[in-house]
């Protein structure tokens, strides 16, 4: 499997356990899940200034092949860092994987941050096999769609889920 550096954006106050679970899937040999986490590159203290934190996050984004955003109940309301991270990812044309923590297989307009609603992104539920599939396959699809000038939200057909055993 090819190396894909993943940047993960999420609500650190309420959704940290989902992020930690993704790291656990990667470490657990029972899952076919590869998660090369760019957040492991450097640590930033919570006491750092906003400018220092954003500079560090930008370095991580620059080292990323794919942008993963965990979409929970409060994600759409977070502007200081989450919206900024999404804006930078869009500006950088990073492939965006929107992971719905409510397990929706397509965009959930009630939870999705408005900035992502018309952005080229794949929306998947929080589950190791489909997230791994998206990390592996979406960058290629994203590149093809982008070259054709396509935008908007995408989701995988039921046949992909069936193929993965859902």
UniProtKB/TrEMBL annotation:
Pfam family, one: ThsB_TIR
InterPro entries the record matches: ThsB__TIR-like_domain, ThsB_TIR-like_sf
Gene3D superfamilies attached to this UniProt entry: 3.40.50.11200
Transmembrane segments: none
SUPFAM superfamilies noted in UniProt: Hypothetical protein MTH538
Domain Thoeris protein ThsB TIR-like: from-to ranges: 7-104
Secretion signal span: none
Identification of the protein by name: Molecular chaperone Tir
Organism: Flavobacterium reichenbachii
Lineage start: Bacteria, Pseudomonadati, Bacteroidota, Flavobacteriia, Flavobacteriales
């Amino acid at each position: 499997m090819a190396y894909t550096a993943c940047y993960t954006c999420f609500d650190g106050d309420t959704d940290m356990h989902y992020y930690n679970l993704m790291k656990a899937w990667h470490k657990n040999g029972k899952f076919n899940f590869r998660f090369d986490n760019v957040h492991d590159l450097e640590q930033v203290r919570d006491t750092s200034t906003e400018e220092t934190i954003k500079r560090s996050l930008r370095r991580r984004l620059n080292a990323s092949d794919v942008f993963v955003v965990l979409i929970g109940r409060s994600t759409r309301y977070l502007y200081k860092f989450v919206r900024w991270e999404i804006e930078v990812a869009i500006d950088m044309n990073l492939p965006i994987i929107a992971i719905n923590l409510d397990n929706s297989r397509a965009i959930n307009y009630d939870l999705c941050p408005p900035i992502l609603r018309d952005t080229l992104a794949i929306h998947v539920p929080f589950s190791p096999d489909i997230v791994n599939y998206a990390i592996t396959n979406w960058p290629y699809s994203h590149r093809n769609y982008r070259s054709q000038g396509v935008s908007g939200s995408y989701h995988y057909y039921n046949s992909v889920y069936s193929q993965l055993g859902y």
